[in-house]
Amino acid sequence: MSVEINATNNQISILVSNALTAIKNRSTDAQWEQKVKNVADKLAHLSKTIKSSKSNAQHFGNAQQKQAAPEHRFSIKQSTNAKVANMDGLEAAVNQAMKKIGKQLKDESIKSPFKDKKSYELVDMLAGEVSSYEKLLSSLDGLAKSAISTTSTSNAVVIKNATTYLKTQGVNGPSILMLAALSLRVIAMMLASKQKSFDIL
Predict the structure, then answer these.
(1) For residue 177, how many C-alpha atoms fall within 13 Å in the half-sphere facing its CB?
(2) Of the chain's two ends, which shows fewer C-beta atoms within 10 Å, N or C?
(3) CA 168 to CA 137: how far, in whole Å?
């Protein structure tokens, strides 16, 4: 199987761009993680294709050298080495692409305000906002948006919709119970964002 150098390099660039864009939009795109995984799968497949192409070039080149007249063997060897070098370059490009995506995932995960905090510290962050009903509602919404970067978009949507609803209800028995439930949900999101790692690649 042959691999076209320029087309493959362009494909790698496009895949990396798609992955980085998905990571950048992680707070608004529920499918960002799947998009990054799809890119990683395509890069892994591309890597296998390149390795196969390099192996074929080496095998075919060696066979040609054995069959060729002595005066042609050197030029055949040079041609084979050039093809192998091109494949090596593509392999390096794929590896670099994977590293770039991995670094971006790591950099984004570090931005979480919950990273390296202990469980009681996370709970205390939320408990410190109970000074007023309105302040707690705003805090829940804000913390959910931060936690979404490492958990699930659906949780953030639930928090946003519920806090919007509670702002229209005022303080009463049912709203306090709902607020308590939301607080527990956000605490769970905070803990998840602290523990989750990005082993996509």
Answers:
(1) 2
(2) N
(3) 11
